[in-house]
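Table 4 source record.
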Amino acid sequence: MYIAMNRFKVALGSESEFEELWKNRDTHLKEVPGFVEFHLLRGPQKDDHVLFSSHTVWSSQAAFEDWTKSEAFRAAHRNAGGGTRSLYLGHPEFEGFEVIQTVS
């Protein structure tokens, strides 16, 4: 398995708008081979932002990479950031992880 995460620093006061943007977007993920699950995570509040992370689980790193090259990816990100840059402090930070151990 492979976990792909993007960390977002969301400006204070913009948390609800950010959450609604994500809740209402058409992700196209369920159509993608290798997709397992998605989570939007809300983290700690700092002096000027709240940390959020998008967290997707994939059957493999190759499945994730295929998604990033797909039409579904382009459709899901078509309006990403359009008019919403004021929500973020800086660019999202991507982190990818190969799963070494899972305990269920």
